[in-house]
Write a structure and sequence with these properties.
Blueprint lengths: L5 H7 L14 H15 L4 H14 L3 H12 L5 H17 L1 H4 L1 H14 L2 H4 L15 H16 L3 H11 L3 H14 L14 H16 L3 H16 L14 H4 L2 H19 L15
Length: 287
């Protein structure tokens, strides 16, 4: 295999190209802790504030931030099962972030997240995949995708599908079948025989947090804010296999939506040290 020249390697790793993940500044811990306290005061459960914080931190490409967040979420618990469940939820949220901010950040963040977990937690994490498609399950994958798409976008689901198809005929097909069906909608096995389960309400929180923290996609943020609300309007929040999300209905209100967005903004502010999102800030000017 050919080798890269020294000059090429230097260019790939040049600081102005921002090639590395984002460190976790000391102040981010206080932000996570504040959000935990605020959530408790507003009767918002751990799963909700942890999900929004994980999705935002993933989008900001900060594996160190994920480790800090995990430590805060488990620091008052001596229960190994709770710690394992926390790690399972965080990495499942991280997986779903692929649909909002891409594969590379999920690869980098989840790899570093696992490496930073205690060995007794790592050894207890699920190792059985649940999204392997086959002739036997492809129909259920497609059905889950169509159902989630309708739940989030009804009564405009068909209109939106047609609009996206004008841009490219495969665009809505890929989104509904492969993102909504294979990724966003939970396989039946999740949370039952293996791994953690995010569920309908928390998936909308992942969407809002991930999109808000990357910036530039206001229409999609709006769509998924409505998607969160529709989980309670259409009853999908209590569909078979769904677990209650403490504070979820409040998060689907105006006041809750504002707290959710402002919480995301505060994490972005802390991780970036006031520089804004790391998702697409552009290449720095060469000095």
């Amino acid at each position: 295999m050919s080798k890269l020249s020294s000059s090429l390697k230097a260019l790939i790793s040049a600081p102005f190209a921002r090639p590395n993940t984002l460190p976790a500044p000391p102040q981010v811990r206080s932000v996570y802790e504040r959000l935990r306290k605020e959530a408790s005061a507003k009767n918002v459960g751990t799963s909700a504030w942890l999900t929004l914080s994980t999705a935002t931190t993933m989008t900001m490409n900060s594996p160190d931030g994920l480790k800090e967040l995990y430590n805060i979420a488990t620091d008052s618990s001596k229960d190994k099962a709770h710690s394992v469940a926390t790690a399972e939820l965080m990495r499942e949220v991280g997986l779903k972030c692929i649909g909002f901010n891409g594969v590379p950040r999920t690869i980098n963040c989840l790899g570093a997240f696992r490496a930073g977990l205690p060995s007794e937690i790592v050894s207890s994490l699920s190792t059985k995949p649940t999204r392997q498609s086959s002739p036997a399950n492809i129909s259920s994958i497609l059905s889950r995708g169509a159902g989630l798409w309708k739940s989030i976008y009804h009564p405009f689901d068909q209109k939106l599908f047609s609009k996206l198809a004008e841009s490219h005929p495969d665009l809505p097909v890929f989104i509904v079948n492969h993102e909504y069906g294979a990724l966003f909608a939970d396989p039946e096995q999740r949370g039952l025989v293996t791994g953690g389960k995010v569920g309908r309400v928390l998936t909308s929180i992942v969407a809002v947090a991930g999109l808000r923290s990357q910036t530039g996609v206001g229409p999609q943020v709006t769509s998924h804010v409505f998607g969160l609300r529709k989980a309670y309007e259409d009853g999908s929040y209590k569909a078979e296999g769904e677990s209650p999300v403490e504070g979820g209905e409040w998060l689907a209100s105006d006041e809750g939506n504002i707290w959710l967005l402002e919480s995301v903004d505060s994490i972005v502010e802390a991780l970036s040290e006031g520089q804004g999102t790391s998702f697409a800030p552009g290449i720095k000017a060469k000095l």
